[in-house]
C-alpha cells in the first residue's frame, strides 16, 4: 500500500513586494517513489535536504508527477534527471504557446519540460497500486491531481486545483488562469472523491462535513538584516491577513 509523506509544505504567503510562491511537494512511496511537484529554485537546497532526511537522493525518484506547469511548481525539474515526468497532454500542449498575459507560465517552461523524460497521462490512469490520476482543470488548462487510497480513506494530492483550506468554503482556487467554471467543478469533484487533501499552498488537512482539521503543524520565519549605516532600521516585517484576498481570473 502506498504511503504519503510531505517533503515541503505549501504556504499561501504574499507581500507588498511580491509572492513567496512556496508550493507543497509530496512523496508517494509504493512500488516506486513518486514526487508530486518540485517547487521553485528558491527552495532547491531545502528540497534536496528534506529528501536526504527521508533517506532519498534525487536519483531515487522514479517519477515526478506535475499537477501543472506553473513556474513555482516546476523549476526544480532538472534536479531529477532520471525521473519520468508525468503531465497531462493539455498542459504540455498549452505551455508550448501560453497566453501572452499568463505570468505563471514563462516561455522557458516548455524547454524545461521537454528536456525531461515526459510521459503524458490522463484521468483514470493508475500510475501505481491504488494511485490514480484525476483531471482537475480550471486553475490551468491541464491541471491534474492524484487520488491515493488508504485504510483511513482517500487522499487527494491536488496542487492548485484546491490550493488551500479556504478554497473548501469558497469553492474556488485563489487564481484561475484557464476557466472559472471548470475550476469550480474541479473543487466539487475533489471534495466528492477524497477526505484528506495535500494542497498546493497549504498544509495537509482533512475535511469532515463543514469541519477542516489540519494534519500537520507549521512554522515560517522571515529574516532580514540591517542595511549598513542604517542601524536597526534596515529591515521591517509585519504579518497580517490580506484584506483584498479574492479569486482572480487572469484575463
Short structural description:
By secondary structure, the protein is of the alpha/beta class. The chain has 6 helices and 17 strands. The chain is 19% helix and 26% strand.
Kindly list the characteristics that best describe this protein.
251 residues; Metallo-beta-lactamase, Chain A; 7-stranded mixed sheet; 6-stranded mixed sheet; 6 helices; 17 strands; 19% helix
Descriptive report:
With 251 residues, this protein is α/β, with parallel strands linked by helices. It contains six helices and 17 strands. The protein has a single domain, classed as 4-Layer Sandwich (Metallo-beta-lactamase, Chain A), CATH 3.60.15.10. The longest helix has 14 residues, at 180-193.
**First CA to last CA: what distance?**
43 Å
Uncertain segments are none
The CATH superfamily label reads Ribonuclease Z/Hydroxyacylglutathione hydrolase-like
Please count the helical segments. 6
Helix coverage percent = 10-25%
- The CATH class turns out to be Alpha Beta
Q: What is the gyration radius calculated from CA atoms?
A: 18 Å
Strand order of the largest sheet: 9-10-11-12-14-15-16
Structural class: alpha/beta
Along the chain, the helix and strand elements come as EEEEEHEHEHHEEEEEHEHEEEE
Beta-strand content bin: 25-35%
The overall pLDDT, averaged over residues, is 93
CATH topology: Metallo-beta-lactamase, Chain A
Count of the separate structural domains: 1
What is the molecular shape? globular
CATH architectural label: 4-Layer Sandwich
**Mind summarizing the main beta sheet?**
7 strands, mixed
Number of strands: 17
Amino acid at each position: 500500500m502506498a504511503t504519503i509523506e510531505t517533503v515541503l509544505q505549501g504556504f499561501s504567503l504574499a507581500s507588498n513586494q511580491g509572492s513567496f510562491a512556496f508550493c507543497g511537494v509530496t512523496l508517494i512511496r509504493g512500488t516506486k517513489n513518486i514526487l508530486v511537484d518540485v517547487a521553485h529554485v528558491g527552495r532547491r537546497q531545502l528540497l534536496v535536504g528534506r529528501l536526504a532526511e527521508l533517506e532519498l537522493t534525487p536519483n531515487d525518484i522514479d517519477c515526478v508527477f506535475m499537477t501543472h506547469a506553473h513556474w513555482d511548481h516546476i523549476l526544480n525539474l532538472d534536479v531529477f534527471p532520471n525521473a519520468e515526468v508525468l503531465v497531462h497532454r493539455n498542459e504540455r500542449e498549452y505551455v508550448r504557446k501560453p497566453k501572452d498575459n499568463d505570468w505563471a507560465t514563462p516561455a522557458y517552461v516548455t524547454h524545461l519540460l521537454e528536456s525531461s523524460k515526459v510521459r503524458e497521462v490522463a484521468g483514470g490512469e493508475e500510475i501505481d497500486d491504488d494511485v490514480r490520476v484525476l483531471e482537475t482543470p480550471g486553475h490551468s488548462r491541464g491541471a491534474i491531481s492524484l487520488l491515493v487510497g488508504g485504510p483511513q480513506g482517500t487522499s487527494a494530492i491536488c496542487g492548485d486545483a484546491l490550493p488551500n483550506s479556504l478554497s473548501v468554503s469558497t469553492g474556488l482556487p485563489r487564481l484561475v488562469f484557464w476557466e472559472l467554471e471548470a475550476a469550480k467543478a474541479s473543487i466539487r469533484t475533489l471534495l466528492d472523491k477524497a477526505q484528506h487533501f495535500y494542497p498546493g499552498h497549504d498544509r495537509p488537512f482533512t475535511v469532515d462535513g463543514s469541519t477542516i482539521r489540519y494534519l500537520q503543524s507549521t512554522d515560517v520565519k522571515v529574516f532580514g538584516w540591517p542595511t549598513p549605516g542604517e542601524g536597526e532600521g534596515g529591515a521591517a516585517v509585519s504579518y497580517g491577513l490580506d484584506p483584498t484576498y479574492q479569486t482572480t481570473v487572469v484575463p
